[in-house]
Amino acid sequence: MEKVYINDHDIVIPGELLAEGFDFLPSGKAFREDEKIFASTIGVASVKGRVIKVIPLAGKYMPRKGDVVIGKVVNISHSGWILDIDSPYLADLNIGEASSEYIDTNRTPMTKYFDLGDYALCEIITISEGFFVKLTAKFKPYRRLMGGNIIKVSPTKIPRIIGKAGSMVNMLKDASGCDITVGQNGLVWIKGEPENEAMVARIIKIIEKESHMPGLTDKIKRMLEKGG
Predict the structure, then answer these.
(1) CATH, residue 41
(2) Cys-Cys crosslink for 82: which of 75, 106, 143, 201, Cβ 3.0 to 4.6 Å?
(3) Are 133 and 153 contained in the same domain?
(4) pLDDT tens across 154-213, in order?
């Protein structure tokens, strides 16, 4: 019996039956047991012909249209930049979406806007069925992030780090004097005095670890009053 029990891009859980039959090939976090293929972790299913793949969700960001993300430039082509957004999928920043001004590459090198290794704040504008992610940085506040430091947290903890109506991140900004930019993909950019950058990074890691704990906001207030 040859049968696929899930669809491309379905969310699957550990032990879930994905397909049946020796014609199918497991990949990623999918495994075979006799004629059947199962998921070994929670993730996103990929069905490409006869290949049944599970891409783990844990620790990886799954792109969504409209999300504001921080990405690292990993490649430059004649048509734009490729960014790593800490996702199973790379993202494309087309030259027409990199600036509100016209970019004439015959007169201006592309590295003036974004160079290899740079971090950029962008918005996801489209995601194709094959998870081809397209970005824009044409409008404020989207830009190249100059200087500062990047820390990584779980994307699921970003709402707690931002706080209700931005309350938590604004408290951190006010107390530290740092510029703090939070990407929904779990990357946080911090720029300020080195000791204040370190303090903010340390406190954000505490928020990530204790996000489920009651009284967290009061604890962070006290820490900030004492200088971290």
Answers:
(1) 2.40.50.100
(2) 75
(3) no
(4) 898 899 999 999 999 999 999 999 999 999 999 999 999 999 999 999 999 999 999 878
